[in-house]
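Researcher: Here's the sequence for the chain we discussed earlier.
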Amino acid sequence: MKKLNIIGISLILISFLFVINSCTKDFEEINTNPNDAELSKASPSMLLTNSIESMTDRVQEIFLGEEMGNCWAQHEAKCQYTDEDRYIYRTSVVNNSWASFYAANGMDVQALYNVAVVQKHNNYQGVALVLKSYIASLLTDLFGPIPYSEAWKGAENTLPKYDSQESIYKDVLAKLAEANTLLDDHGDGIEGDILFDGDILKWKKFANSLRMRLLLRMSGKDAATATTELTKMIGDPTTYPIFESNDDNAALKYLGSAPNNHPMNENRKTRDDHRVSKTLVDMMWTNSPNLDYRICIYAERIGNSFEGMPNGLTSSKALAYKGNGIKNTCKVGSYFTQATAPGMLMSYAELQFILAEAAFKGYVPGGMTKAEEYYYEGIYGSYAQFGDDLIAKVPAAWLPSADANSDSLAADYIAKDIYGWDAAKGMELIASQRWAATFDQGLQSWIEWRRTGFPVLIPAEDGTNNGKIPVRFPYPTDEAARNPTALGEGVKLLGGSDDLNTRVWWDVN
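Model: Thanks. This is the structure I predict for it:
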């Protein structure tokens, strides 16, 4: 990927196009002269490469994705330096994440879109809309009201207003629908695509699958729109293709050496303070009537067993846990800490659980029959996501047969486990299995837990948030100095309180 060269070229182009003083208007409004010869000659491929990697790096960043996302979702816990696990977040992480999604990743994507418009390249436009929608949806799900309609305009507007999350969702959903129209696998090809290797159909599937994620997420506030749009999409797969297998997963394939290795891999070179959460080990091993084989790839075994770390202990308690918390609790599985670990943005398994919930709630046709079908396909898809890597991690004595594969492991798990389909517990089952299938996708897992309340999570033992798991990020302190009036209006849109326990618009749980 030659990240350093790409970043250098990208920044030169961006500095020509924009003066980046602040996150600043509507993504569709072009801020450049359409006759500008420089834009007509610019290389969108370089912007695309850097946009994908820098965005994914930020999603997977250690303090944001791992220590806030994965720990607050209780996929992981800390055995040292436990502040984030106790809900003591770093203001610098919040500030840097906001700045990255706005002034770095977001501005790259804005520049990509502007170039594509001038060059009349529909596929680059569509890809830019997908990436922008991903960034905007994540930002608003983390914070609530954010700058959106006046964002990403550079020096033209350095004091962007905050928009309500409801209005942002409506526009992002419209932009993803537009991306689906723009993207054409028979159209002009694209280069620099390190996510799907130039496969436009896969970008189209990502656009529609992401749209389904967001439609379901806001369904508690607008079930009518969710029903109309999801039913339309599921009923016309030719017009609205979605993920059909793990081959379609939106996952960045990291390379094997710095700076193009997975952030967790780089972190492991100097640190060893992340452990698998006791919550996950209890669900998949300790309290499971039959082995959920995925625990073998999620966690490194200790002998022939697994031991998780409770979330949110003080550092001294964590170090003393089970006699030696560092030694006697499970490390995160090597599959997720290797240099080439996938940077997952959205998976086929997650989409199946989205469809299962949509069928369960009547947003798409099929009722309980289809809900059960999607539910089981989500479990099979989750197992298949790891394929031979999973088989290699399961001790031979634990395999149900000598020729076991991911499907047979999933079937064995389903046949005996408490997570076999039961319509009476449908929502709990679907949400809990979605949580299990999105291991190491901490931000999205935490966001979905906020929406559904499943699985039932016990707040950090020594947490600092009045016995509650946070349900949003606080606004960055930088905004108070840079854009205080707009920030104040954003807090009003949020309901008047900017804290960890203030629910965002769609959160009716």
